């Protein structure tokens, strides 16, 4: 139970009788399907999230019509894009024009292979994970240049060239910042880097030394530049290049470009979380190999940090109950019916949370005769669900920052962009690398 | 000396970018989470307070979003100022006050595309003729306002309503006088005619007696 590829190999016992190659093919297909679906879902959700954040920063609401909170908006957009006419310019280089968006997509989707979701959840834990990420990131450049060249359009070509210059330059500080992490962790595997950060928040690489703290910001800035997002989106600067490299693309090919771009947001935030923010490590809780339930449920609850967590949950539950009670009083005073009531309309989420807490309390009460059963549930929770939620939450918070930047900062000029990279990020990156080595020599 | 100036400028640039970026981010953060949302969720909200209630067109069913948005749920009962913000002489759908109308047909004469149809009868206790038919074909009307300007009694006027869209073509032809009123008017007209006849007869009789 280390990664999905090995797990599946173990699972397909019947297939293995047919031989190695068919088993490998089936495993590859399954993993590819999982990766692609997760990638598509993430990029779709990010288009929604982007529009929502755009709305918020403009004091608007953002999409809220399709599905609950507008969450299914991306499906509607996708269907629209698929149904639209796909135009290929007459003078375009047809084969390259057709292939370019999928190369971009490939570069992004491949990165999802090494992104972990928990101590046991990863598609393939490569021992060169971080290097692999840097390598797959370079697919993007090729895809962008191909798109720019094949469109046979001046603006597209300029956009492609700009993106090549930008991405190639920004890969250096990116790699330097990651090198700081590799230096500290002593491994390039993603899970290995996360395991090296076990033992509390002060062991996370962002807080472990001043140099890796700086490296985090270098990584973050250069990663945003690598995925061509504002404020570094000169390849598609609409004031200068209309739309840049994707100017001639329409329908789903255009959609694929955007899916890749939005999927990239998750990739860079997930890598930042893995390398600097402790990955799936939960603050104040140890979710390592054995999990907190190494011994028994009673000793687990008796631990001070668990007691603190329970206290926090109780406080939150009290607060929610208070809000729900206020809404209920509001309804009773105005004699509102159940479904027209403020309690149900505005606090339906409280209702759900309350039910969850009540269920939790019930389980706590009933746990004594069900100890073995319960400990399995708790084990699964701390091994799979909690680390996943923590990792995902950290990545989402960080990607909110990415979107927040996009709706705050103006675009850089080309020379400013290069200046930031070569004059600031790269020298500071080298200082970080040397400093981190010195720091480790000093303190170990 | 120049070298140290350069160093100062270098770190000054970093300092300046960090501070200015954080200032900008704080502004957008404030807007995103602490400011009132300006969106008018038009079909879900009654933005035309008052006037839409006595609408002559069938009122639309109020739409509700499937779930209330998480943020700013307390602003759901917001009634927009749209009605107040419309211009004073806004040309919305045409309104009609049958109590004022004298069926002079000036609107019909003035209409450049003949979208108005008026019929009137003489009844008792009313100046001019009382209308029995007042019909506007909104599918042709271009809201030029010539009928409104021509009307001597202000019976035809512009409302501020603009939600005129319907699903069927024929519903765009608006009857402003109900069938009941139409029948009542016809009866009253009969009465008035008979009374007039009687008056005439009496006059003739009195003339004959004289």
Structural class of the helices, strands and pairings of chain B? alpha+beta
Task: Let me know the largest β-sheet of chain B.
Answer: 3 strands, antiparallel
Spell out the helices and strands of chain A N to C: HHHHHHHHHHHHHHHHHHH
Distance between the termini of chain B: 131 Å
Portion of residues in beta strands of chain B equals: 5-15%
Question: How large, in whole angstroms, is the Cα Rg of chain B?
Answer: 32 Å
How does this model look, in words?
The complex is a heterodimer of chains A (444) and B (210). Chain A is mostly helical and 444 residues long. Chain A folds into two domains: 4-281 and 394-443, no CATH class; 297-393, no CATH class. Chain A contains 19 helices and no strands. In chain A, helix 1 packs across helix 3, helix 5 (94-111) packs antiparallel against helix 6 (129-137) and helix 8 runs antiparallel to helix 11. The radius of gyration of chain A is 25 Å and the shape is globular. The two termini of chain A are 33 Å apart. The model of chain A is unreliable at 289-296 (pLDDT under 50). With 210 residues, chain B is of the alpha+beta class. Chain B contains five helices and five strands. Chain B has helices spanning 2-34, 82-85, 106-110, 146-150, 179-209; strands spanning 94-96, 116-121, 130-137, 156-158, 173-175. A three-stranded antiparallel sheet of chain B has the order 2-3-5. In chain B, a hairpin with an 8-residue loop joins strand 2 (116-121) and strand 3 (130-137). The interface between A and B is medium-sized, with 24 and 28 residues.
């Amino acid at each position: 139970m280390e990664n999905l590829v090995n797990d599946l190999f173990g699972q397909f016992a019947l297939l293995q009788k047919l031989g190695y190659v068919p088993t490998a093919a089936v495993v590859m297909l399954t993993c590819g399907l999982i990766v692609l679906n997760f990638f598509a879902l993430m990029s779709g959700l990010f288009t929604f999230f982007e529009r929502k954040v755009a709305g918020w920063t403009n004091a608007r609401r953002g999409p809220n019509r399709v599905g609950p909170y507008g969450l299914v908006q991306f499906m509607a957009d996708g269907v629209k894009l698929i149904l639209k006419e796909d135009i290929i310019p007459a003078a375009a280089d047809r084969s390259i024009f057709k292939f370019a968006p999928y190369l971009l997509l490939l570069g992004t989707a491949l990165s999802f292979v090494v992104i972990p979701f928990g101590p046991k959840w990863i598609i393939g834990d490569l021992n060169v994970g971080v290097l692999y990420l840097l390598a797959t990131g370079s697919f993007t450049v090729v895809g962008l240049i191909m798109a720019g060249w094949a469109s046979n359009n001046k603006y597209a070509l300029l956009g492609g060239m700009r993106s090549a210059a930008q991405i190639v330059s920004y890969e250096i500080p990116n790699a330097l910042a990651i090198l700081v992490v590799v230096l500290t962790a002593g491994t390039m595997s993603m899970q290995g880097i996360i395991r090296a950060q076990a033992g509390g928040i002060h062991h996370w690489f962002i807080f472990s030394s001043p140099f890796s703290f700086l490296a985090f910001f270098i990584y973050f800035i250069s990663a945003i530049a690598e995925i061509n997002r504002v404020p570094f989106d000169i390849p598609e600067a609409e004031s200068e290049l209309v739309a840049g490299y994707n100017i001639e693309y329409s329908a789903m090919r255009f959609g694929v470009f955007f899916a890749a771009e939005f999927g990239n947001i998750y990739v860079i935030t997930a890598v930042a979380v893995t390398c600097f923010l402790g990955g799936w490590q939960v603050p104040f809780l140890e979710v390592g190999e054995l999990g907190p339930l190494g011994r028994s449920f009673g000793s687990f609850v008796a631990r001070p940090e668990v007691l603190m967590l329970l206290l926090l949950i109780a406080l939150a539950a009290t607060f929610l109950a208070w809000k729900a009670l206020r809404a209920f009083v509001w309804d009773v005073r105005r004699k509102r019916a159940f479904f027209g009531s403020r309690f149900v309309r505005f606090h339906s989420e409280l209702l759900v949370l309350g039910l969850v807490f009540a269920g939790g309390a019930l389980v706590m009460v009933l746990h004594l005769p069900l100890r073995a059963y319960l400990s399995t549930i708790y084990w699964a929770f701390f091994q799979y669900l909690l680390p996943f939620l923590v990792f995902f939450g950290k990545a989402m918070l960080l990607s909110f920052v990415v979107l927040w930047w996009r709706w705050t900062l103006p675009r850089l000029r080309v020379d400013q962009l290069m200046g930031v990279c070569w004059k600031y990020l790269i020298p500071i990156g080298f200082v970080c690398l040397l400093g981190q080595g010195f720091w480790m020599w000093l303190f170990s | 000396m120049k070298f140290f100036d350069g160093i100062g400028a270098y770190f000054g640039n970093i300092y300046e970018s960090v501070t200015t970026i954080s200032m900008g981010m704080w502004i957008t953060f404030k807007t995103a989470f602490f400011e009132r949302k300006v969106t008018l969720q038009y079909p879900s909200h009654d933005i035309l307070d008052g006037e839409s209630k006595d609408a002559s067109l069938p009122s639309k069913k109020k739409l509700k979003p499937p779930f209330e948005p998480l943020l700013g749920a307390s602003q759901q009962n917001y009634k927009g100022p749209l009605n107040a913000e419309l211009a004073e002489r806004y040309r919305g759908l045409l309104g009609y006050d049958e109590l004022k109308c004298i069926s002079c047909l000036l609107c019909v004469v003035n209409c450049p595309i003949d979208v108005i149809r008026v019929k009137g009868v003489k009844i008792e206790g009313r100046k001019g003729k009382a209308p029995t038919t007042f019909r506007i074909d909104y599918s042709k009307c271009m809201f030029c306002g010539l009928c409104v300007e021509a009307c001597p009694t202000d019976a035809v006027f512009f409302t501020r309503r603009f939600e005129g869209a319907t699903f069927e073509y024929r519903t765009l032809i608006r009857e402003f006088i109900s069938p009941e009123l139409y029948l009542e008017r016809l009866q009253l007209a009969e009465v008035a005619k008979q009374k007039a006849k009687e008056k005439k007869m009496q006059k003739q009789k009195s003339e004959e007696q004289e």
